[in-house]
Amino acid sequence: MYTPGPVNLLGLNAGLNGQAKTSLGFFVGVGMAMLTLFLLFGWAGAAWVRDDMLAAVGAVGCGYILHLAIKVARSTIDLGVVRKAPRVLLFRDGLVMQLCNPKAMIATLPIATIQFPAAGVHGAGLLLWSLGLAVLAFGAPGSYALVGSVVGRRIENPWLLKGFSLAMAALLVWVAIIIGYEHVWLPLASGEL
Q: What is this entry's stated membrane topology (predicted)?
């Protein structure tokens, strides 16, 4: 959950742009999405998830990541006065992005369908473990935002901040390409679906 990915990079970008506090809803949305996935997969089981669904969700997720990359790239940053601040990330953004993130599904599916049952985690235990992991998921982009806000205060050149935003946008595009290739293109090209 704490490795660089689209959700954490957006958290870092929010921190750099002084939006760590206003993006708390985004972080809650990420945690809620993970809670939903853990509970859904834990209760419904692996039989419910079909391979063709993962490719479709992956395609939607790639589209949304590209949309956010464009928003980050277009943001204008002026350290004196922010003329056009990047759009504040909302609860909905975190929820949708994480629900459509194949990495989130790939992370939650084996835990909820293999590791939880092997450890005897079910019923109320499933809810408690899922809540704990959701709190960790909330903390991942939150910690990146915290780092961004600390680093952002030390940057005095607006071009550095704009360059960083463009780099974050490029990384988001790269993540979308990788997800699209591995989780949409390869399954479609190999005829797995």
A: Multi-pass membrane protein
Return d(Cα 65, Cα 173) in angstroms, integer. Answer: 7
Q: What is the pLDDT of residues 29-73, one digit of tens each?
A: 999 999 999 999 888 765 565 656 767 777 877 887 788 788 878
State whether residue 155 is helix, strand or coil.
coil
Asked if residues 12 and 148 have their Cβ atoms less than 8 Å apart, the reply is: yes
Nearest one of 34, 30, 36 to 8, comparing CA atoms: 30
Answer whether 0.85 is exceeded by the pTM: no
* Domains of the chain by residue range: 6-189
| Angle of the 91-99 helix axis to the 51-74 helix axis, nearest 10 | 140
What residue type is 8 in one-letter code?
Answer: N
